[in-house]
Amino acid sequence: MTTYPVEKGIITAASQHPDASYAAAELACALCHEHLGFVLFFCSAEYDLAGLAAALERSFPSTPLSGCTTAGEITPLGYDRGSIVAMGFDRRWFAIETALIDDLDHFELANAQPLVDTLLERCRRQAVAPINEHSFALTLLDGLSSREEQVLATLDAALGRIPSFGGSAGDDNHLSHTHVYTAGRFHTRAAVVVMINTQLPFDVFSTHHLTPLAHKLVVTEANREQRRVIELNGLPAAQVYADLVGVAPAQLNAAIFAHHPLAVRIGGQHYVRSIQRVNSDSSLSFYCAVENGIVLTAMQPTPLLDNLEEMLAGVSARLGTPSVIIACDCFLRRMELEALAHLDQASQLLRQAGVVGFNTYGEQHHGMHVNQTFTGVAFGSLPTNDNH
């Protein structure tokens, strides 16, 4: 077990034990104290999830928990697999409320507004900090639901000026079953909204290490519901993309997709739309929504470690040295680090900065669903004379 104690507000811990009961007990040993108010966790999908749910509820009998499965974990020691990482929030500095969205297909503003209003009112009653300038939302969605765009846009409208970020649950790159957790069990085709109100200063951020090239591809035929592009520039999508990156269609794989992403330009910014796989009909399946008529820009990566270091420096410049950073990091970024043999160097940067979190099947930032980004929230420290 590894722990990363924080002087005020949040304690982080991780367990690599494969037995769910033992792992949950290790987390409880590290996190439990008289002021524990909430536990957020991210776990490998390799765990017996029913057993893990029961073990967590036994280990934290009076503490609400939320979390999701991952495509890799970021523990207090850096990148990991097959583990569970958790954060314990002190109720003296955090008011945290959660809600389950279990019908993603029919989630509309009429559902979202009362959900957000109820969460904010429950936080307000705890009188930890003023609501409007001291709250943000964390969203965790089933990463294989293909409903992120609709849910996030709807939630963003209901949240108004309250910032939000989050990640899509993973399943260790199997792309078969992803889960979110709340109210004592794991759920599929669902989302969890975690409203966090805190006295601690915080900074919600997002970054990526990709820059645009001149090449443009027009989606001329797509299946929006399946996130599948059938034609680009009027030709079979896989062939056009393969020609762009200089390989045969049969050579296309996840590593190439990670190194040669595409993006859509919205409001002067590029939002990455990563490719998931090539299909037998030469269409391309994406991790984010695509539709007829959009223009995709070819992107090229800049050094990822440099981008990570710059991002962490920028957070410190805005906030002061963070006490904890909770991160949603695209699993394609991790694949790139592994391919370049830079994972240990990245882990060192994350460890030094106090980053914990998980590798996702998609990231969420202010109502947008994106790929190949590093998105999260950094917490500052309370003044040293603030005692409870």
Give an account of the 3D structure.
This protein is an alpha+beta fold and 388 residues long. The protein contains nine helices and 27 strands. The protein has helices spanning 20-31, 49-59, 109-125, 148-159, 237-245, 254-259, 304-319, 331-339, 343-353; strands at residues 2-4, 10-15, 36-44, 65-70, 73-75, 78-80, 84-90, 94-101, 135-141, 164-168, 180-182, 185-187, 191-198, 202-207, 210-223, 228-232, 235-236, 262-266, 269-273, 275-278, 284-286, 295-301, 324-330, 355-360, 363-365, 368-370, 374-379. The strands form four sheets. Strands 15, 16, 17, 18, 19, 20, 21 and 22 form an eight-stranded antiparallel β-sheet that branches. A hairpin with a 5-residue loop joins β20 and β21. The chain is globular and about 60 Å long. The two termini are 29 Å apart.
Please give the structural blueprint.
Layout lengths: L1 E3 L5 E6 L4 H12 L4 E9 L4 H11 L5 E6 L2 E3 L2 E3 L3 E7 L3 E8 L7 H17 L9 E7 L6 H12 L4 E5 L11 E3 L2 E3 L3 E8 L3 E6 L2 E14 L4 E5 L2 E2 H9 L8 H6 L2 E5 L2 E5 L1 E4 L5 E3 L8 E7 L2 H16 L4 E7 H9 L3 H11 L1 E6 L2 E3 L2 E3 L3 E6 L9
Parallel strand pairs: 3-4, 9-10, 23-24
Antiparallel strand pairs: 1-2, 2-7, 3-7, 4-11, 5-6, 5-24, 8-13, 9-13, 10-25, 11-12, 14-27, 15-16, 15-22, 16-17, 16-21, 18-19, 18-22, 20-21, 23-27, 25-26
Helix pairs in contact: 1-2, 3-4, 7-9
Keywords:
single chain, 388 residues, alpha+beta, 8-stranded antiparallel β-sheet, 7-stranded mixed β-sheet, globular
Biggest beta-sheet profile: 8 strands, antiparallel
What is the total tally of β strands? 27
| Helix run count | 9
Percent in strands? 35-45%
Question: Radius of gyration, rounded?
Answer: 20 Å
Shape: globular
List the uncertain runs: none
The overall pLDDT average reads 93
**Class inferred from helices and paired strands:** alpha+beta
N-to-C span: 29 Å
Helix content: 25-40%
